Amino acid sequence: MSEQEENCGKSAGGFLLGLFLGGLIGAVAALLLAPRRGDETREMLVQKSNDLASTARARTSEVADTLSKSASDLTGKASELVETARGKAGEISQSVADKANEAVSTARDTAQAVIEKAKQAVDSSTSQVAGAAQAFKTATESKKKELEAQLGDLTGNKEA
C-alpha cells in the first residue's frame, strides 16, 4: 500500500473519532446547560447515549464497509498486476513475478491491518461513550439524592 493510501486510512479514522467525540462533548454540554428537571435530563441523556451508540455502530459499519471495499479494490488491482506479470513472464525474469505476488500479499495484510485498527478505534470510542454515560448517570443520581436530602431538610425545618 502506498504511503498516501495509508495516510488516508489513518486520517479517515482520526476524523471519524474526532467527529464522534466532538458530538459527544457537545451533547453532554447541551444537556448540562439546558434548564430541565433532573428526571428529564436523565431521560434525555439516556436517549442521547442510545442515539450516540447507534450512530457509533452505524459509523463502524460504514467504515468497515468502506475499508472492505477498498481492500477488495486493492486486491482486484493487485490481482490484475499479477496477471499482467504472468502474461509477460516469457519476457521478464521469474523474480519479477515473485515480487508482484509479494506485493499482493503485503497489500492484503496492510488492508486487513487498517480495517482492524478502524474497528478497534470505533470499539474504543463506543466503550468511552458508554463509560461517560454511566459516569454521568451515576453523578446525576448522586446529585439527585443530595438535593432530595436537602429538600427534606428544608421542608422539615419549615414544619418545626
What is the compact description of this entry?
The chain is mainly α.
Describe, in plain words, how this protein is organized in 3D.
The protein has 160 residues and is mainly alpha-helical. It has 3 helices and no strands. It has helices at 3-33, 38-87, 94-159. The radius of gyration is 26 Å and the shape is rod-shaped.
* Number of structural units classed as domains: 1
Overall average pLDDT: 80
Class by helix and strand content? mainly alpha
| Record field, number of beta strands | 0
The arrangement of helices and strands along the chain is HHH
The parts where pLDDT drops under 50 for at least 5 residues are none
What's the main sheet like? none
Q: What's the helical proportion of residues?
A: over 70%
Q: So how many helices?
A: 3
Per DSSP, what share of the residues sits in E-state strands of 2 or more residues? under 5%
State the shape: rod-shaped
Roughly how many Å is the radius of gyration?
26 Å
Span from first to last CA? 79 Å
Structure characteristics:
160 residues; mainly alpha; 3 helices; 92% helix
List the topology elements.
Layout: H1 3-33, H2 38-87, H3 94-159
